[in-house]
Design a protein that fits this description.
alpha/beta; 28 strands; Ubiquitin-like (UB roll); 6-stranded mixed β-sheet; homodimer
Chain lengths: 624, 624
């Protein structure tokens, strides 16, 4: 059967696949934050012609259905079909985040004063050809020369099985490739004049997967790809995934899902740059502890059960074939080390990217992704905790939530007189959803304009058509046009307040533990998908960020991928990551009663103890 | 189609297979020193019923053909067929060699005063269960406990992927299995009360493959299996095999052939003792350098080309899955280290079995297998050489040659008056061929009785019907009966004399190199398939063994398997093998002109310089 895309290509397919799957197999990615299980309602396409069996229309409106709109993940072609893909359904590749800019990353690497030293080391060697007087074996000859350089390696079967021919094909002059961390000889290569090697930095987020294809010789990021983590279809957060993993075959499914995502990202990128995937020779993965366990197929069950124990925090350098990544089979794969069950390599990457562990000043690092992890410390100590914020700032669990990509409402202003909103949209396109920074803006503006009260309750006594009864109770209409409506529901608002409360409570707990006060924090680094766009003042008003002068905040974007990049490029950075991981003291919040108290107090806008937010107090009193 | 064996089982098969192959697939092994290519004429079966396409009758006589006799490897059933297998065509499993007796081997091991320490080490551990206060990862917990014992391992993916479940299933009390030489963690096991582990000692000879199944807990040899090396079909000696290996796909074929032989030996043995092959957990292989290269699939081409360089002499401990041996996939496989291209691990094993490297006395070790390697030395030094004797003493290249198994003529007496022979046969059965000791006897007796002259030429002026014109010139009829004849041809005799000359010339060269004389040799250790049966006096008369008092000779049997056994049982023995390999100085004979002179002089019975054989000189002068 054929699936034809209007003004696009024609795809042949077989079997009972839905449109989302058919497109994905052909490297056309639709937005689908639920991973394709029909619940997020974002993978909309319009059927122009041909028989399609629709299993569910989800939340599509009558008007949309009449236009032929279907959810791709719920629609199965039963013959030749022609579809149109609205621009807003296309997943935008490329994260619009500060640190992703090549120059920034490379400058960061340079600032560490480190040499380029990727996972595969190469040394040019020339061995004396054997003779009757010097007739030791090929392996001994190689070892003898390496011993003189103080190098002593392990030789896997794959290396020795090609040794004698490689040496002679290269006439005893060659590059020896080896992997330092695992001390393993990899291969013998012709000595090249103009070397060109490629590697991958991979951030495995609970919600998104990001891949950077990097030129290992000059540190250039050649291209960037990102997609939703397909594990989303098995659950929004790490806990539901762990539960799923412990069911029969679940672990394998979850593993396969994320490995497929990575492979699906690599192939088209490599192809478009004329790079043979077999020539990609090293990988660094960074992610939270559960994601790394799932990526390697390690049982995550004990992460969830008290006393919350992962199989490992530090992982040996294994190979691409062990991981199932379809590049050079023996490519080393380095996992940025984790700290504990709920503080992973993504946070170690974050500290590495901020350099807070190298400075005297007291700094706070907050990674506001699906979980919400925080680090406090300086060059002498680092203290960390995780605060279960949930995935809402990445679009999860929010009716029209989405990541900070094209089509996302990133900022909102609401007139206190008319209650009418004004929005800006990433990419200046028609809005299709709202991202984390938009949510913070919206909740804060709704609070300041009196649409919601201090507990986040939508007031039903305000005269505006923007406030209305929706399917899930009261909701506020942020945008309507082109038959599309974007709302923030009462449930959404409660989710957002719970998330911000968890984050703030975590900061409070950690500060109390180390005996510092808020004002002593000299720098606040904020990482997370919404990155660039967050409005600090508003986040303070909402009570998510501590009430500190705006100039102390720095937005770092996706620091997990930044750390992966650093580790991909330099052995020193890998050492540094290990040092950071071992420096960090982990505090388990979930077992502390005091955390629940802090959390409850923070379920207010901005906080039950307004004294903790002096600038907000002043502002609010000025308004009244 | 079915193949029915008279008074035996019925085998179903499909495809165009010959009877030899069908039987082999069903674990019925026929004698076939040529490996099944139709040239040795030993795999005789009698077709009782059914259509068989015979491609060649080889050297079968008219009478044999009339009885329905065919060569199994040349005969293809074309429907249901019934055959009878003569007892003498069955390959006898079990080598009748001195050192194969369990007690001898175990005594030898004990004499080294070493502890049992197989390739997999086990330590019983008990870890404190994790708690909120001690919440390091499983891997760190294990490492912490191992560090306290001074053990620091590598953790392969296969180990860590099962770690968290294994620890908990065993309630934190378990045996840790690891491999010392490769420093690799292997698995976590329940702590067993009565341990029972099995391993394999394997001797890969050019002509034969021998496997010992060993109980690793008490050193008991549970069973023994042996077969011809199927590589025989690609050539009798290492040189023709190397040539074959360098042809397209040849290396893979040769590798598969020997690995299949080993697997075919393991399966029925394990089955008959109720041992799960998956439970066989370690392997030691011993063999000459070419055999080990072929076993591991390493290109042997450069072994043959001056300056004769192997890929490696010492091999890392790889795994059963790398080798293709169908036992526990991650079972460590240790290769007894080699010395040079033509002195392999079989010779290192030999020295280990003789203990000559631990004594003050000057000793000579001779391994008379397919090649013929010698070692001279004592505790302070070891000198070694290979002398290309060819496979004749193992039955190769001799018309009716065979290994020293049931049915082999092992000794011959010839009346100087009547020229009539008297023979003894291994197993007291009908003779089906002649083995190495029988050949030495026969040639010596033919010389002493005047049937051949000093150059080995059969005299045509002697009046006996035993000497006659055969297909290949003159031959001597050693046995006839039951329609079967066993002869020694002129070509056979020349082959035997060339072999003994090569061996003797090698000994002479090595002695000259180190500046010793024959009489200074205090002990001569003789290893090789013919083992027990050789008659020293006669071998001296023939000029194969040096003219020394009989009491200085010791017969060691298959010392290659003995060394493999020792290394299988003990880490000290593996260290010792490595020490021996590094102690040995290799002398390349083939490039020395003097060797050719020595060889030419030794092509005489006993030698052109009769002064080197004073006892023979005296004996001959007494006869005249």
């Amino acid at each position: 059967m054929n699936l034809t895309i209007l003004e696009g290509k024609r795809i042949s397919f077989e079997g009972n696949l839905n449109i989302y799957e058919i497109l994905k197999k052909n490297r056309i990615f639709l937005t689908a934050s639920c991973g394709g299980k029909g619940s997020c309602g974002k993978c909309r396409v319009i059927v122009k012609d041909g028989p399609v069996r629709v299993e569910s229309h989800g939340k599509l409106t009558k008007a949309e259905k009449e236009k032929g709109m279907v959810l791709a993940c719920q629609s199965y072609p039963e013959g030749d079909v022609t579809i149109e893909i609205p621009i807003e359904s296309m997943l935008t590749v490329g994260d619009k985040i500060a640190i992703s800019r090549t120059r920034d990353l490379f400058e960061l690497l340079k600032s560490y004063k480190t040499e380029l030293s990727p996972l595969i080391s190469r040394i040019t060697m020339e061995l004396p050809a054997p003779s009757l007087d010097d007739n030791i074996s090929d392996l001994e000859r190689l070892k003898r020369a390496l011993n003189e350089r103080g190098i002593n390696l392990d030789y896997p079967y794959s290396f020795i099985s090609r040794l004698s021919d490689s040496l002679r094909e290269n006439n005893w002059r060659f590059n020896l490739c080896y992997q330092k961390e695992s001390n393993r000889a990899i291969s013998i290569e012709p000595p090249v004049e103009k070397p060109c090697y490629h590697g991958l930095a991979v951030d495995i987020g609970t919600t998104t997967v990001v891949v950077y294809l990097v030129d290992l010789c000059d540190g250039r990021v050649i291209d960037v790809g990102s997609t939703y983590n397909s594990q989303m279809r098995y659950g929004d957060d790490v806990i539901t995934r762990i539960v799923y993993a412990t069911e029969g075959g679940g672990l394998r499914e979850l593993r396969q899902a994320v490995v497929n995502d990575i492979n699906d990202l690599i192939m088209p990128i490599a192809e478009s740059h004329g790079i043979d995937p077999e020539g990609i020779e090293s990988v660094v993965v960074s992610g939270n502890t559960t994601m790394i366990h799932l990526f390697w197929g390690l049982n995550p069950a004990y992460i969830r059960e008290e006393p919350y124990i992962p199989t490992a925090n530090s992982f040996p350098v294994w190979q691409a074939r062990d991981a199932g990544i379809r590049i050079r089979r023996d490519a080393p794969v380095y996992s940025v080390p984790c700290v504990a069950s709920y503080v992973g390599g993504d946070i170690v990457s974050g500290v590495l990217a901020t350099k807070m562990h190298t400075r005297d000043e007291l700094a706070l690092f907050m990674d506001i992704g699906t979980n919400g992890e925080i680090v406090i410390g300086n060059r002498d100590w680092l203290m960390t905790a995780a605060c279960s914020a949930g995935p809402c700032f990445e679009g999860g669990g929010i009716k029209h939530g989405m990541r900070a990509t094209n089509g996302a409402i990133e900022s909102v202003r609401i007139s206190p007189e008319t209650y009418e909103p004004e929005v800006t949209v990433i990419g200046d396109t028609v809005p299709i959803g709202i991202c984390g920074s938009g949510m913070i803006d919206a909740v804060t503006e709704m609070f300041l304009s009196g649409i919601i009260d201090q507990k986040g309750k939508i007031r039903d006594d305000i005269k505006t058509e923007r406030i209305r009864e929706g399917e899930e109770g009261l909701e506020y209409l942020i945008y309507s046009g082109d038959g599309r409506e974007i709302v923030l529901t009462q449930v959404d608002i409660e989710n957002i307040i719970r998330a911000k409360a968890a984050i703030y409570a975590g900061v409070s707990m950690l500060l109390k533990e180390v005996g510092f006060t808020l004002e002593m924090i000299e720098k606040v680094y904020i990482a997370g998908g919404f990155g660039n766009y967050i409005n600090v003042e508003r986040a303070i008003v909402m009570g998510m960020l501590p009430d500190l002068p705006v100039e102390r905040f720095r937005f770092m974007g996706n620091t997990s991928i930044a750390g992966a990049y650093l580790c991909l490029m330099s052995e020193d950075m890998r050492r540094e990551a290990e040092r950071i991981a071992s420096m960090m003291t982990y505090m388990e919040l979930s077992t502390k009663g005091a955390f629940m108290d802090e959390f409850m107090s923070a379920l207010f806008l901005p906080h039950t103890e307004i004294e903790q937010f002096p600038s907000v107090k002043e502002m609010l009193s000025g308004m009244r």
